[in-house]
Amino acid sequence: MISLTEQLVSQLQKEFSNREDSYNKNIVKEIYKPLPKGTYPKTTIQEIDNSEEIDRSTTAGERTTALTYQIVQYSRDTEEFDYVDSVKFMASITDDFLSQNYKMQRLGSPVIQPYILDKTVMTYTQRYSCVYDKETNLIYVN
Predict the structure, then answer these.
(1) Per-residue confidence at 55, pLDDT binned at 50, 70, 90?
(2) Which domain holds residue 38?
(3) What letter does residue 28 receive in the DSSP assignment?
(4) Which partner for 41 in 26, 54, 97, 126 could form a disulfide, CB atoms 3.0-4.6 Å apart?
């Protein structure tokens, strides 16, 4: 199985770290990795589908992997925005990054809601998918 989770975490962390605003402190991590309480803004990445597909319509039987990731942004009010606009801004950075660099396509509509453990934190949940060709190392839109 192919997974892009570690690469996505590393590259998205660099994307935020290179910014010259308060979002350069955004922490990007896999969903199950520990993080000190109250650390915001942050982004979590969770792989929710990783299934091999064999295209039987080709003579070579190309092998690809369908990948789906859930990205959740968390934020309190920042210097630039209130918490709703803050998570939307973070999500737009993430959306641009994933679509341009990984050819990922967003699935459905995002969900914006207060964080269940802390109502002063807003969350923005998005899902993205792509198909990874194991032989050519190319990523395709699903």
Answers:
(1) low
(2) 5-140
(3) E
(4) 26
